[in-house]
Every structure is written in structure tokens, then in C-alpha cells.
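We store chain and fold; example below:
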Amino acid sequence: MNSFENSAGAETLSTISLDSLPIEVFLMICERIDADTLVKSLMYVNKQFYEIISDNYLWKKRAMRTFNDCNVAFMLTSVYNENTFNWKQFTWHTELEDSCWAEYETKTTTTVFSGAHFSEVDAVIMARDGNHCISASRDRSICLWNTTIGTNNPVVHKIDSHLGWVWDLEIYDDHHFLSCSWDSKVKLWNTDNFTQISQPIQTFR
């Protein structure tokens, strides 16, 4: 091979770039790039990339492949509408959520709170302030905990809430939560004065 052929080959190689690749090859590369990089970076390189990566069908196909048909159907439940559903947002945020838990054992710390309940804990919810959690137990009580790291006494308040096992808790709004029990009652509690009360503000049968 003469010097002219060498220089021609080098010039050809130097002109190869992502936007010069066949669309099929580019899509195969996209399949191996995480959704966050595609959405935040690659799609803004140029107009061509933006149009390709914005395609709703591309993200639908990615979701079906990544999460499989059954899981996708379960996650969508009744919110899905073929004409309006945003597959890019759905797939992007679902992949982000999955990545947060992919290495949770090495990327998270564990804090154990104990000393309040004497039976199994069946429900725990985080308060909206992010610094407290509420637990419900088969000992018929509900506890408010301070989850701030380094707290010497994490138990803020304990209420004998029901006449039976407390099965579940649910945040109602920024100031209230609900509890349900084996005693066939659902109770509404006010979190603003949780440490001062021993009775719910309303009971449903």
C-alpha cells in the first residue's frame, strides 16, 4: 500500500462520527447508554440526535425490553393512554429509580431504631418533613421516631392507638396520616400535635 492509500484511509477513519453512522448502528449504541445520559446529554448534541432520541416509540421499545411486558403493564395500571403516554419520561425515571437500588448494599448506611415496640412492626411511613417516621405494630401502638442520624433517643412519642394489631399506615396530606387495624377501624391522626395527643381526630368504622 503506497503513502497515498495510507493517507486516504486515515482521512476516511478520521471522518467517522456518531452522526455519520447508519441509524440502525446509532440506535444500537443508544441501547447501551443509560437513559439519564441520553436525555440530559446526547439528545442535545445536534438536531438529528434530538429527533431520534425524542421518538416515543424508541422509548416504548426500550421499556418493553428492559422491564418486560408484564412488569410494564403492572407499573402503568390505569394511567396508560397510547396516544398521550410519555414513554421517554416513564422509562427515564424508572431506570433512574432502578439504578438507585442497584448497589444499595454498598451505597447506603443502615440505622436501627428499637426500644419502643414489643411486637412485630407491620408498617412504616416517612413523615413529609423528612426527619421523622411513623411505625405501626402488632402491640397495638403507633410510634413517632426522629430519624436524624446521631439522635440519642429516637422515640419521640408512642400512642396506644387501636384495640387490635395495627396493620397499615398511609400519609393523608402534609398534616395528617391514617392508620388501620384488626379492630376494624381506620383512624385519622394530626401530625402537627402528634406528641401531645392520645386520641385520633376522627375514627371510621
The beta strands are 121-126, 132-137, 141-146, 155-160, 166-173, 176-181, 186-190, 202-204. The longest strand covers residues 166-173. The chain has two domains: 18-107, 121-202. The two ends are 90 Å apart (CA to CA).
